[in-house]
Amino acid sequence: MKSIDFKKHKLFLVETIFFAVIIALLIIGGIYSILFPVIDDVRRNDYDTDYLAGIYSADKDDFSKIATLIERYNIEDISHGDFIIKSEKYFYKDTLYYQTDSELTDDQKSKITDLAYKLFDKYDFDVIESENEKVSFSYTNQSIDLVYSKSKTPHIGDEGLCKSIATNWYVVEY
Q: Which end of the chain is more exposed for a tag (fewer CB within 10 A), N or C?
């Protein structure tokens, strides 16, 4: 086998190092893309009734404010894009999509977006949605929601378990 004298072929040495670095980055990126969802799911296994009751207690003023704003501004969904039907009216701000039929002023958008972004960033919700006088803060892969409902017992479907954590606030597990 013929050996290469790298002192004479410096360009070949640079190309070899560059190629090795690119291959290493691709391998690390592949491993990261496989492991990150697994790590994310392991972290989210702790999302249970006690966890949601705790985050509600920690930021109950913010949760109450955003639930009020969502109802007032007729916001249907807030998400990272997963639940948005592009044919419906929506706006995008601070990495989040807001679906609404209302014409909102910039001031109204700022009120809702600042608070929504803070809660998404802090608690990593998948979606906040409003329907039938109920606002749900959802972790969809974990089948658990923090729910604000004006009715005494929110309709959660046949398969859900509902636990009251405060007046008009519930944790629903599916």
A: N
